[in-house]
Amino acid sequence: METKIFQLDQISEAAELLRQGELVAFPTETVYGLGANALLQESVKQVFAVKGRPSDNPLIVHVADFSMTKEFVESYHPLTEKIIKNFWPGPLTVIFSIKKERLSPVVTGGLSTAAFRMPDNKKTLSLIEKTGAPLVGPSANTSGKPSPTTAMHVYHDLKGKIAGILDDGATQIGVESTVLDLSGEVPTILRPGAVTKETLEEVLEIEVPLDKHLVKESETPKAPGMKYKHYSPDTQVLMIQPGDWEKALYWADKQGKKVGLLATPKIADSYLSADRFVYTDNTIEAATRGLFSGLRALDEGKKADVIFAEVFPEDHLGLAYMNRLKKAAAQNYFIEK
């Protein structure tokens, strides 16, 4: 199969492919999604086949406006209107209890809930509108690997397996959306993202708990990205605490291991001999935007035996960064032997 790269003036062509049951990857402000018509069960099954993703994982349903959710949702949480008004379109996915048999169990993972998002990307909103149906959109990569933040990342993983990719350059945020569960009484964060716990609490004027449960391989997650290990390159990744860089590099040298460095300029500029992916500046925003690109670049370069990655405090956007990095590293920090 030829995988075509679609530009702005070709969105109608991409939408027609989706209506026919083909798969087309699309851009969002977070990462690129692997699009299939959410109403075509066989197309959704192909998403799992192409990604090599376990079919018990629920998928996020992408809509062009809030009204598109009404066909599927059984009941809305009292805070829904305030949440949608403040955070859609944007990097916030919400989980609702849904009506029976309105969405295939292939979409929901067999659960009585489903996840919905309105991405903040004009090309993709137009694509959904022209398709005339919501789109499922897990990250457009081989399952378990770092999520794609450019069309070329998607092409690298899925060329020849999908019909097309709608190109809109690099994504702005770089990690997947926050997932907020609204199917119970208390809004609960199941996956941290750019809409932070602090921001949600400020807007909603309530405490919003974070579910830190790590789902085992045998369990069905309520939302994507809840597995113990995820977003992992083939190369081993170790997280490095601020005071451990010298010890970690000494250990690697003693073991004869070549190091790939994933860090901000303030760290990376001290270790010019390593194969490096340097974030554009020292901020958590730059680190989050560059995390998946950096993991991919160092892994695909195949120059490193181990990737040493910089850590950040686990608050605000740092919570999302560390959530992804911990899973890429299978929860492993460098520990002096």
Automatic annotation (TrEMBL):
InterPro entries per record: DHBP_synth_RibB-like_a/b_dom, Sua5-like_dom, Sua5/YwlC_C, Sua5_C, T(6)A37_SUA5, TC-AMP_synthase_SUA5
Enzyme class: transferase
Binding site for L-threonine: T30, H62, R117, S177
Subcellular location: Cytoplasm
Positions annotated to bind ATP: R53, N57, T113, S139, S147, R191, Y231
MF terms (GO), sorted A to Z: ATP binding; double-stranded RNA binding; L-threonylcarbamoyladenylate synthase; tRNA binding
Subcellular location, principal: cytoplasm
Statement: the UniProt record of this protein carries the keyword Nucleotidyltransferase: yes
GO cellular component, one term: cytoplasm
UniProt keyword terms in alphabetical order: ATP-binding, Cytoplasm, Nucleotide-binding, Nucleotidyltransferase, Transferase, tRNA processing
Residues annotated as domain YrdC-like: 8-195
EC code: 2.7.7.87
Pfam families membership: Sua5_C, Sua5_yciO_yrdC
GO BP field: regulation of translational fidelity; tRNA processing
Catalytic activity: L-threonine + hydrogencarbonate + ATP = L-threonylcarbamoyladenylate + diphosphate + H2O
Record carries keyword Translocase: no
The family this protein is said to belong to: Belongs to the SUA5 family.
Function: Required for the formation of a threonylcarbamoyl group on adenosine at position 37 (t(6)A37) in tRNAs that read codons beginning with adenine.
Protein name: Threonylcarbamoyl-AMP synthase
